[in-house]
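Hey, quick one: can you model this chain's 3D structure?
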Amino acid sequence: MAEEEIYQEEIEDIEDKEEDLPFAKAEVVRLMKQNLDSDKMIRERVKVEMNKFLGDILKQVCQQLNEYPYTTIEYEMLKESTYPYTNIKRINQEKERILLHLNAIKADCDALAMDVQKTLKLKDVVDEDEFTPLSMATQEEDEEIEE
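Sure thing. Here's the predicted structure for all 147 residues.
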Protein backbone atom coordinates (compact mmCIF):
# COMPACT_ATOMS: atom_id res chain seq x y z
CA MET A 1 0.00 0.00 0.00
CA ALA A 2 2.85 2.41 0.81
CA GLU A 3 4.39 1.81 -2.62
CA GLU A 4 1.11 2.73 -4.31
CA GLU A 5 0.96 6.02 -2.36
CA ILE A 6 4.54 6.90 -3.31
CA TYR A 7 3.79 6.08 -6.96
CA GLN A 8 0.63 8.21 -6.84
CA GLU A 9 2.58 11.14 -5.37
CA GLU A 10 5.19 10.84 -8.14
CA ILE A 11 2.44 10.93 -10.77
CA GLU A 12 0.93 14.03 -9.15
CA ASP A 13 4.37 15.73 -9.08
CA ILE A 14 4.84 15.00 -12.78
CA GLU A 15 1.38 16.34 -13.59
CA ASP A 16 2.13 19.51 -11.59
CA LYS A 17 5.38 20.00 -13.51
CA GLU A 18 3.60 19.53 -16.83
CA GLU A 19 1.33 22.47 -16.04
CA ASP A 20 4.37 24.76 -15.68
CA LEU A 21 5.92 23.76 -19.01
CA PRO A 22 6.19 26.44 -21.69
CA PHE A 23 5.36 24.12 -24.62
CA ALA A 24 3.11 21.15 -25.22
CA LYS A 25 5.08 18.16 -24.00
CA ALA A 26 3.87 15.91 -26.81
CA GLU A 27 5.22 18.31 -29.45
CA VAL A 28 8.64 18.54 -27.79
CA VAL A 29 8.81 14.74 -27.45
CA ARG A 30 7.78 14.32 -31.09
CA LEU A 31 10.56 16.66 -32.22
CA MET A 32 13.09 14.91 -30.00
CA LYS A 33 12.14 11.51 -31.40
CA GLN A 34 12.48 12.84 -34.95
CA ASN A 35 16.07 13.83 -34.25
CA LEU A 36 17.20 10.94 -32.05
CA ASP A 37 18.09 7.42 -33.12
CA SER A 38 15.09 5.11 -33.20
CA ASP A 39 16.52 2.87 -30.46
CA LYS A 40 16.67 5.72 -27.91
CA MET A 41 14.19 5.95 -25.07
CA ILE A 42 13.54 9.30 -23.40
CA ARG A 43 13.04 9.46 -19.66
CA GLU A 44 10.29 11.67 -18.27
CA ARG A 45 12.71 14.05 -16.59
CA VAL A 46 14.55 14.58 -19.89
CA LYS A 47 11.27 15.46 -21.61
CA VAL A 48 10.43 18.00 -18.92
CA GLU A 49 13.92 19.52 -18.77
CA MET A 50 14.16 19.82 -22.58
CA ASN A 51 10.85 21.66 -22.55
CA LYS A 52 12.11 24.04 -19.84
CA PHE A 53 15.40 24.53 -21.70
CA LEU A 54 13.59 25.48 -24.90
CA GLY A 55 11.44 27.88 -22.90
CA ASP A 56 14.56 29.51 -21.39
CA ILE A 57 16.11 29.94 -24.84
CA LEU A 58 12.89 31.54 -26.07
CA LYS A 59 12.94 33.95 -23.11
CA GLN A 60 16.56 34.93 -23.79
CA VAL A 61 15.87 35.56 -27.47
CA CYS A 62 12.79 37.64 -26.59
CA GLN A 63 14.79 39.69 -24.08
CA GLN A 64 17.29 40.47 -26.81
CA LEU A 65 14.46 41.35 -29.20
CA ASN A 66 13.05 43.71 -26.56
CA GLU A 67 16.28 45.71 -26.68
CA TYR A 68 15.36 46.97 -30.16
CA PRO A 69 13.59 50.34 -30.07
CA TYR A 70 11.10 49.34 -32.77
CA THR A 71 7.54 48.19 -32.14
CA THR A 72 7.58 45.66 -34.98
CA ILE A 73 9.99 42.74 -34.87
CA GLU A 74 11.53 42.02 -38.27
CA TYR A 75 13.10 38.79 -39.48
CA GLU A 76 16.59 40.33 -39.46
CA MET A 77 16.20 41.12 -35.76
CA LEU A 78 15.21 37.54 -35.02
CA LYS A 79 18.11 36.26 -37.09
CA GLU A 80 20.55 38.45 -35.14
CA SER A 81 19.04 37.42 -31.79
CA THR A 82 19.25 33.69 -32.56
CA TYR A 83 22.78 33.87 -34.04
CA PRO A 84 24.57 32.58 -30.89
CA TYR A 85 22.33 29.50 -30.84
CA THR A 86 22.32 28.71 -34.55
CA ASN A 87 26.06 29.25 -35.15
CA ILE A 88 27.63 27.81 -32.03
CA LYS A 89 29.99 25.57 -34.03
CA ARG A 90 31.35 28.52 -36.01
CA ILE A 91 31.71 30.61 -32.85
CA ASN A 92 33.72 27.85 -31.15
CA GLN A 93 35.97 27.49 -34.20
CA GLU A 94 36.61 31.24 -34.19
CA LYS A 95 37.42 31.07 -30.46
CA GLU A 96 39.98 28.30 -31.08
CA ARG A 97 41.54 30.27 -33.94
CA ILE A 98 41.88 33.38 -31.77
CA LEU A 99 43.42 31.41 -28.89
CA LEU A 100 45.99 29.82 -31.23
CA HIS A 101 46.84 33.25 -32.62
CA LEU A 102 47.26 34.68 -29.09
CA ASN A 103 49.58 31.81 -28.17
CA ALA A 104 51.67 32.55 -31.27
CA ILE A 105 51.86 36.21 -30.22
CA LYS A 106 53.00 35.14 -26.72
CA ALA A 107 55.76 33.02 -28.26
CA ASP A 108 56.87 35.95 -30.43
CA CYS A 109 56.96 38.21 -27.37
CA ASP A 110 59.05 35.66 -25.48
CA ALA A 111 61.52 35.41 -28.37
CA LEU A 112 61.80 39.19 -28.65
CA ALA A 113 62.32 39.56 -24.91
CA MET A 114 65.14 36.99 -24.97
CA ASP A 115 66.76 38.77 -27.93
CA VAL A 116 66.56 42.11 -26.11
CA GLN A 117 68.10 40.67 -22.95
CA LYS A 118 70.94 38.97 -24.86
CA THR A 119 71.83 41.73 -27.29
CA LEU A 120 71.06 44.96 -25.47
CA LYS A 121 72.85 44.52 -22.15
CA LEU A 122 74.10 47.61 -20.42
CA LYS A 123 77.57 47.46 -18.84
CA ASP A 124 76.65 49.27 -15.65
CA VAL A 125 73.64 47.04 -14.92
CA VAL A 126 74.04 43.75 -13.11
CA ASP A 127 73.42 40.83 -15.48
CA GLU A 128 70.18 39.04 -14.98
CA ASP A 129 70.68 35.56 -16.29
CA GLU A 130 67.16 34.65 -15.36
CA PHE A 131 64.84 35.17 -18.27
CA THR A 132 61.27 34.19 -17.62
CA PRO A 133 59.22 33.86 -20.79
CA LEU A 134 55.86 35.59 -20.76
CA SER A 135 54.03 32.29 -20.85
CA MET A 136 55.99 30.98 -17.86
CA ALA A 137 55.43 34.19 -15.91
CA THR A 138 51.71 33.92 -16.55
CA GLN A 139 51.71 30.32 -15.31
CA GLU A 140 53.63 31.29 -12.17
CA GLU A 141 51.19 34.13 -11.49
CA ASP A 142 48.26 31.75 -11.94
CA GLU A 143 49.84 29.28 -9.50
CA GLU A 144 50.33 32.05 -6.92
CA ILE A 145 46.71 33.12 -7.29
CA GLU A 146 45.49 29.54 -6.83
CA GLU A 147 47.44 29.20 -3.59
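One thing worth noting: The chain has a mean pLDDT of 83.
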